[in-house]
Amino acid sequence: MYSRQYEETLEDDQAEQRNRERAAIDHSIMLLEQARDTCGGAVDVSKAVFFTSKLWAVLVEDLADPENALPQDLKAQIISIGIWILKELERLRSGETNSFDDLIIVSRSIRDGLP
């Protein structure tokens, strides 16, 4: 009986974590869209880059943790995507690019792939 309750609690915790991740990615997408729609206004770009960079730094760190239960190949793939996102954000920050579309598309794909 206790083991089933523990498993249910663990499943609830994992579902809650996925919901938090989804909400954070949604917020990141919203900020990226705002920055894109305001034609790269400095404040909007800064907000989008700052939040999305922090988010992906945390996600990559979590994925690199040996205790993360995801399969190794999946973790490696998502880490690679995270590194690409961080590089693209740096390009936006430095003014090397002003395109948000690829970041938005990839972020939506990651969000939509969450269980």
What does this structure look like?
This protein is mainly alpha-helical and 115 residues long. The chain has a single domain, classed as Four Helix Bundle (Hemerythrin (Met), subunit A) (Up-down Bundle). Helices cover 83% and strands 0% of the residues. It has helices at residues 2-37, 42-64, 72-94, 101-113. α1 runs antiparallel to α2 (42-64), α1 runs antiparallel to α4 and α2 (42-64) packs antiparallel against α3. The longest helix has 36 residues, at 2-37. The mean pLDDT is 89.
Low-confidence stretches: none
> Mean pLDDT across all residues, rounded?
89
The domain tally reads 1
The backbone outline, from C-alpha atoms, is globular
Through-space gap between termini: 27 Å
List key phrases describing it.
115 residues; Four Helix Bundle (Hemerythrin (Met), subunit A); 4 helices; globular
A few lines on this structure:
This protein has 115 residues and is mainly alpha-helical. The chain has helices at residues 2-37, 42-64, 72-94, 101-113.
What is this structure's SSE topology?
Layout: H1 2-37, H2 42-64, H3 72-94, H4 101-113
